[in-house]
Structure formats: structure tokens, C-alpha cells
Amino acid sequence: MNMNETNPDEGMLGDLTEDMIIDHVSDVSDVTATRTRRDIPQMMRKIPVTLTLEVGSARISLQELMAIGPDSVIELDMLAGEPLVIKVNGTPIGRAEVVVAGENYGLKVIDLDGLNLDMMTS
Question: For the Flagellar motor switch protein FliN-like C-terminal domain, which residue ranges apply (predicted)?
Fold first, then answer.
């Protein structure tokens, strides 16, 4: 672009005061911030997470681990019939029990005490 040429919009912008331009920029940034806040929950809904159901755990020595074979039984720290821990990406969010869903195992949610979905929508 030739620097000696005049910009056709220059006449229109020349009539605007600096305060008017700053106010307009502030209005645009407020709208953008509001739109971004509103879009975050929708975007977050598409993030994949890993949901696991923890049956229990056992703390054993390396020697005991080396002795494990096909018929070994290892006692876990959970009682039979007790609700199992639901975890999302390793973080406990509630409790559930195992059910059969078609040909697969499923989980029936008993309670959700560590999942705060309201935080994502505010």
C-alpha cells in the first residue's frame, strides 16, 4: 500500500474521540469474555475422562508378588457386598455396585459425593 494514499476510513475515524474508541473496545472485550465463559462448559463436556470402579486394594511385599500364580487368591481391603469406589481419572467421586448390563458388567451409582458439576457451569 502506498503510504502517501489516504485511507478512506480515516475521515470516519477522525471524528471519533479516544474515549469513544476505548469504550467500544471495552464493550467488545466484555462480550468476548461472556461468550468465552459460556462456551467453556460446552467445550469441557467433550473432554474424555477415564471412569473406573475400584474393587479394592492389597498391600503385599515384592516377595509375595513374585509368588503369585494362576490359582493364587489375594485378599483385598474391601468387604464382599460393600459399595465400590467410582473414580474419574483416579479421583474418587462416589460409590457404586456392580451390575450386569447386557453381556457386560456395569455400575449402578449409589451416591456421588466428590463430583461437583455446578462448578463447571458457573
Answer: 44-111
Cβ–Cβ < 8 Å for 99, 107? yes
Verdict on whether the full-model pTM lies above 0.85:
no
Helix (H, G, I), strand (E, B) or coil at 79: coil
**CA 21 vs CA 14, 25, 34, 43, 96: distances in Å:** 11, 6, 20, 32, 57
- φ, ψ (nearest 5 deg) of residue 87: -125, 140
Check if the beta carbon of residue 41 is closer than 8 Å to that of residue 121.
Answer: yes
Q: What are phi and psi of 116, to 5 degrees?
A: -110, 90
Q: Are 114 and 51 in contact (CB under 8 A)?
A: no
Rounded to a whole number, what is the largest CA-CA distance in the chain?
A: 89
Q: What is the pLDDT of residue 18?
A: 47
